[in-house]
Request: fold
Amino acid sequence: MKLRALPALAGAAVLALGLAACSGSAGATDAGTDESSTGSGYAVDENTLVFGVVPDSVDTETNYQPLMDYIAEITGKTVEYHESTDYAALIEAAVAGKVDVASFSGFTYVTATNNGAELTPISSIVTEEGQEPGYYSQAIVPVGSDIEGIEDFAGKKVCFVDPSSTSGYLFPSYNLLEAGIDPKSDITPVFAGKHDVSVQKVGEGVECEAGFAEDSEVEKSDKVKVVAETMVPGAPLVYASSLPEEVATQLVDGLAEITVDDIIAAGIDSADSDAFRSVFYATKPVDDEYYDLIRDICEKTEAEQCQG
Reply:
């Protein structure tokens, strides 16, 4: 998990036509209870913060729980978990004002803001001491494959994660183009939906002969090998810019630069576990400018999802 995360042109219609539907808490998705349009500044009400995320594994909610408990502690509000079905649905939720705090991928953040979402980046999560924000988009093939690099992906069935995934689609598409491979016509794209599923399908070598996923999921499998990798800007924790200044300040002060020990010291005992420590060591501040690299790659790939 990254508490962090082109036949993209095929997925562009998803955004252009209003995107996919969101799943998650009823309060966050029920238009009848959505108070964001009333000017309250909240997705639901002043006592609740809706935390939006796209699952990248079966453990996503469990992995996020200590962080959500910490946000509840520093703000004094109930934090409600909102799991979107995919990246497009999280973008839709952000544009509609239905999430207050969220964990985006870099690409999703850029796409959401290009489509009108008012979001402010706070920080990016790192998993080890001394680490800087960022992670790897890795090109993978089954163990035993004779594919040696991205240049050999031409003509193959290639697994991507989602049309709005940074490490699972945007960067891979850019790297394919750099290798002289058109990701729309020179390969057969397969969208796995999640990073772990992309890894699984590539490992099986049936639906996908090659593919892409983020490093944290790739390292869990002994069925695939890495043939190339690219560093991706760290996934941002963001807040809705519509939130009252007092709450925004609490979130920035509490999330901009903290460690797992700070969270434990705040009384969140569940953070003191091997599971949480494996996905969270600290946060490092990031700002909007940090994602200009993604904007540059959007321009070079002409990915329609990037457009407002």
Q: What stands out?
A: Residues 135-232 form a domain with the D-Maltodextrin-Binding Protein; domain 2 fold (CATH 3.40.190.10). The first strand starts at residue 48 and ends at 53. Confidence is low (pLDDT under 50) at residues 1-38.
